[in-house]
Design a protein that fits this description.
This protein is of the alpha+beta class and about 450 residues long. The protein contains eleven helices and 22 strands. Strands 6, 7, 8, 9, 10, 11 and 12 form a seven-stranded mixed β-sheet that branches. Strands 2-20-19-13-17-16 form a six-stranded mixed β-sheet. α5 links the parallel β11 and β12. The protein is globular and about 75 Å long. The N terminus is likely disordered.
Length: about 450
């Protein structure tokens, strides 16, 4: 077990990229806001220096690992063994002092370790005890993911910590509860803990797994080969251990007469935030950003302002960052950015599109047309699927999103990437199609 030095709490900064110029009577103001946290625990996907608390301070985080133990995990038997090994690898990655538990998920949620509604505190002895308990995991029963999440929520709520995180693994569809039950569980857990979700194999439903991660501000991915679970779980836990600040929100103020058209995360993934707004005062709303370590993310804001004459200018929006405190209060993180609107009769200035805004508009469209194309392919509309996926190839090529381009090339034969001319492949591996769908929202950063 590595020994780490105590890290600093991240320092946040906000940078705004926009073309503030509007034609006379123009209303729509677009901006890309880059939020950066430096000096925290995560650099890339590795743990740089997790926070170690002095004796008596208590742990900084709590993690619950939810492992699918339904009957399908025994087909083939190596899947269950790989899941046990992956969970053990994740437990080994826990730093000393972190509260944790393991839940076996079927149509029920059974606490594997430590049990009795408790959380263990990570250390050499508890890690070994947890790995011993994992050996008793066996496959059998159904799948009711909402039940797993509610059990994780109860466990995590018992810890007096800042960071609460879940890791969820499933290999099948959520067949033993209704979509409404899962939705209700997600609504109940949202804002209480973050959760990374993984689908192993190819028998699970992509929209279920990505929907869980989206609702709980985590990541989603496919592990098509169960042999890759241990490495993936280790990376997930390393990232979780690097989080230093929980419950960060983007606070957006707009002037009288202005309305927020949308707010979305656009890097490292596309995530719609508009509907998650909570009111925070006159003309002010908060948008949840989840937990942060040492990292940077980009957000696209669009605000409709009252039209004005040439020569007028106004503050279209003020962006700041806050964190939630116990008792419902908030604390400012000190970072702020301003979005401006200036009306001009200079045609070149008012029609120029900011490069960052243009890039991420294309990336958001890329994610959308991939999903639409795959949905059309599933229902047999091959012409529609070809058109959508051709547009996706065109956008991926133009933006330099090489990873998405490679995934698309496993589903379509690319005739001309620049024009989006493609042919659907007659035979596509299910894992390739699911990988494309799961990772469709991953974006490439714009070069600033």
């Amino acid at each position: 077990m590595a020994i780490f030095a105590k890290s600093n709490v991240p320092q946040f900064s906000v940078d705004v990229y926009q073309n503030e110029y509007l034609p006379e009577g123009g209303r729509e103001v677009n901006a890309v806001v880059t939020v950066t946290a430096t000096g925290g625990g995560t650099i890339g996907s590795a743990v740089a220096a997790p926070h170690l608390y002095a004796p008596g301070e208590g742990p900084s985080a709590a993690v619950v690992l939810m492992v699918d133990c339904s009957g399908s995990m025994d087909h083939p038997p190596t899947k269950m063994r790989n899941a046990r090994d992956a969970t053990g690898a994740a437990i080994d990655t826990l730093r000393d002092g972190v509260h944790f538990a393991v839940v076996a998920g079927t149509h029920l949620a059974r606490e594997v370790y430590p049990g009795d509604g408790r959380l263990a505190v990570a250390g050499p002895d508890t890690r070994e005890q947890a790995k011993q308990a994992l050996r008793k995991l066996s496959a059998g029963g159904g799948t009711a993911i909402g039940t797993w999440l509610r059990r994780a929520d109860r466990l995590l709520a018992s810890a007096d910590v800042a960071i609460r995180h879940g890791i969820l693994l499933t290999d099948g569809r959520n067949e033993h509860e209704s979509p409404e039950d899962l939705r209700a569980a997600l609504d109940a857990c949202a804002g209480r803990f973050t959760c990374d979700a993984r689908g192993v194999g190819t028998d699970w439903e992509v929209k279920e797994v990505t929907g869980i991660a989206s609702a709980l501000l985590g990541t989603a991915d496919i592990v098509a080969d169960p042999a890759g679970l241990a490495a993936d779980f280790t990376r997930m836990m390393e990232t979780a251990m690097g989080k230093e600040v929980a419950d960060v929100s983007l606070r957006l103020w707009t002037p009288a007469g202005a309305t927020v058209t949308f707010v979305k995360q656009v890097a490292p993934t596309v995530e719609e935030l508009t509907g998650r707004r909570t009111e925070a005062g006159p003309r002010t709303g908060d948008y949840p950003l989840g937990s942060w370590g040492d990292e940077s993310r980009d957000y696209h804001l669009c605000v409709a302002v009252p039209p004005a004459a040439v020569g007028r200018e106004m503050l279209a929006a003020r962006v700041s960052l806050v964190i939630s405190q116990p008792g419902g209060s908030v604390q400012s993180l000190g970072a702020q950015g301003l979005v401006r609107a200036v009306w001009t009769d200079d045609l070149a200035a008012s029609t120029s599109i900011n490069p960052q805004v243009a890039h991420y508009t294309g990336q958001a469209e890329l994610a959308e047309v991939i999903q639409e194309g795959l949905d059309l392919r599933k229902v047999g509309d091959m012409d529609g699927a070809t058109a959508k996926l051709g547009r996706a190839v065109q956008l991926a090529s133009a933006s330099g999103n090489a990873d998405t381009a490679k995934l698309l090339a496993k589903v379509v034969d690319v005739v001309d990437a620049a024009t989006g001319t493609v042919r659907l492949k007659t035979k596509v591996e299910e894992a390739d199609e699911m990988t494309l769908e799961t990772r469709s929202t991953k974006t490439v950063r714009v070069k600033k």
